[in-house]
Design goal:
Elements: E1 5-9, H1 13-16, E2 26-31, E3 34-42, E4 46-50, H2 64-68, E5 72-76, H3 93-107, E6 112-117, H4 119-130, E7 135-141, H5 148-151, H6 156-161, H7 166-174, H8 178-186, H9 197-210, H10 213-221, H11 223-229, E8 241-246, H12 254-263, E9 268-272, H13 279-282, H14 284-295
Parallel strand pairs: 4-5, 4-6, 6-7, 7-8, 8-9
Antiparallel strand pairs: 1-2, 2-3, 3-5
Amino acid sequence: MSSRTKLSSSSNEACQKLLPLDHYPVQTVRINEHPTAFVRYGHGPPLVLLHGYAGALWNWEHQIQSLGKHRTLYIPDLLGHGLSAKPRIAFTPVVYLDWLQGFMDAVGIQKADFVGSSMGCGLIFGLALTRPEKVGRLVLISGFPAHVFDQVRGTYLERFRRLRVGFLFGLAYQLLGRRAFRKVLRGIVNDPEQITAAVIERAYRLRKDHGKAWPLWSSLCQVHQWEQQFAPRLGEIAAPTLILWGNNDRFFQPVVGEELHRSIPGSRFAVIPHAGHLPMWEQPDLVNRLILDFVTNEFLDL
């Protein structure tokens, strides 16, 4: 374990009130002195699950039991998100990548398979390109395409980016209420009825009690670095890769996933019916089966 990391348990009662954190012990690891919250669950080879922009580890709540029967899951809140630290730093791709490598070192992972959602896929790309010996198989869900801002359609992210000024972004973030969360969450799923009052309340409380605008604003401002450093190199990814995409993803439309599929040699591509931008949350039975089939080298075509 390196000197920059320290592993400990967390009994934060506030954490435990946020489903699914009331069911699974939340641990904390310090990376460059910044605490990272994560859940470790299951048995078997390591499988790391990385959520997307403005997400949190609850995005994987329907994967924990199913995948944990076959793999040891490591599910962190990304630096700047969820219950993890939100330092006042530039959230560049290199910072995120250093954080991920530090996380792996801290929990003792030499090599792992990875599942990423949206921006989490971009982080996996960075690791696969810079430290290929660290990655096994990759499952990419709803992202992360080149020319991100040209691809995104009709979402709050597009509108927030147009604010241009960090102060206005922060003000808009602070003013987000439950009604706004309902609109945002319903805009990224296929079936708005899945966004129940409990789901809205959880997202709202997480933002109200633990959220900060700076990491989200800074991440948006640094996307150009990902475009310059990693997007042009997607064709160099050698790890076996499965790409999953919701058929009604209004954030990144399925054609974006098809383009990503063509960019990564030998990758597989599957469309998830009746799903939006979070197919692992909306159609967990199918997505879990496809993930397990792929990481165990028994992939079955839809």
